[in-house]
Amino acid sequence: MAITKEQMEKIREMRKNGIPIAQMAKNLKISRQVIYKYLKRFEQQENQNKQQQIQEMQSQTQQPVQPQPAVSQIQKELVENATEKEGDMLARILAKYNLSEPLTTEEVNFLIGTLKKKYLSLDKVLQEELKQGEENEARKAFLAKIS
Fold first, then answer.
1. What is the structure's pLDDT at 130?
2. Model-level pTM greater than 0.70?
3. Is residue 114 within 8 Å of residue 85, measured between CB atoms?
C-alpha cells in the first residue's frame, strides 16, 4: 500500500513527537509494516543527505580560501601620497590590517602618525578654502552694496 505525501508528513511529525509506531498506524489507518518501511527509507535518505553535506563541507575546508584584501580609496591615497619609504611601510601595514593580522605597536604608531599628518594637511587646505570662500563672499557683498 502506498502512502500519500500528507501521511508521510504526519508520520515524520508524529515520529518527532515520540508517538509510538502502533499509535501512528492506528491514527493513520496504515499497517505498522508500511510505517516501518517508510521510516527506514526516510532515515536512509536523511543519512545520505547528511553524508553528502559532510562531504561538501570537508571539500570546502580542504580548499584554502585566499582572502581578498579590500583596499579603500583612503588607503590608496595614503600610500600614493607618501614618500617611497613611507609608502612601502603603509602598504605592508594596510595589507596586514586587511587580512586581519595583528599589527605591532610600532606599526600602529606609524599608522597614527601618518594619518595625523595627512589629516592635518587636509585641515589646512580646508581652512584656506574656507578663508578664500569668505573673502569671495565679502567681495560679492561689497560689490552688491556699491552697485
1. 77
2. no
3. no
